[in-house]
Amino acid sequence: MSSLTEVKQKNEWKEWGKAILIAVVLAFLLRTFVFATSIVEGDSMDPTLQDGERVIFNKFVYLINEPNRGDIVIIHRPEKNYVKRIIGLPGETIEIKDHKLYINNKLHNQTFLTEDAKNHTGNYGPITVPKGRYFVMGDNRSISKDSRNGLGFIMEDEIIGRSEFIFYPFNEIAKTR
């Protein structure tokens, strides 16, 4: 009778071990290939994203789709990662005049900007985005380091994911798009 109990206990431990191993492997695969987290540093994406917020970003989406205008993306550079919004796609001409954004000579409405950000964009361009590159800007235009002033055009392989939602602080949980 006691050997039957011992066999059941060993089988139970084996099942628990398998379950834990599967959970660890799945978590590793999801973190490596599908989702990851990033901390927003600085105020360049304010008010959409604020300093210290943690976001979950989708690493898989750009393996099957191209980045789109308006996507908030994580950009990997050797010195650090940046969080910016895609404004210009490959081949498009970007110009900012009188604080208004023009893409291919057509006025583009930026509903995600505050009135203050709209009035502090300044003049820029016209400039054509090269093939395989993207033009990005932060939502807080007056202080953002972006394609206009330091980051330059972003290569497609530097975009490591699309920000999906804020998960911390808990009172700020929301989609980022």
Automatic annotation (TrEMBL):
Keywords: Cell membrane, Hydrolase, Membrane, Protease, Transmembrane, Transmembrane helix. Residues 13-168 form the Peptidase S26 domain. InterPro entries: LexA/Signal_pep-like_sf (IPR036286), Pept_S26A_signal_pept_1 (IPR000223), Pept_S26A_signal_pept_1_CS (IPR019758), Pept_S26A_signal_pept_1_Lys-AS (IPR019757), Pept_S26A_signal_pept_1_Ser-AS (IPR019756), Peptidase_S26 (IPR019533). PROSITE patterns: SPASE_I_1, SPASE_I_2, SPASE_I_3. It comes from the Bacteria. It is found in: Cell membrane; Membrane. Transmembrane segments: none annotated. One of its GO terms (biological process) is signal peptide processing. The keyword Cell membrane applies. It is an enzyme of class 3 (hydrolase). It catalyses: Cleavage of hydrophobic, N-terminal signal or leader sequences from secreted and periplasmic proteins. GO terms for molecular function: serine-type endopeptidase activity; signal peptidase activity. Belongs to the peptidase S26 family. This is Signal peptidase I. It comes from Ornithinibacillus hominis. The gene is lepB.
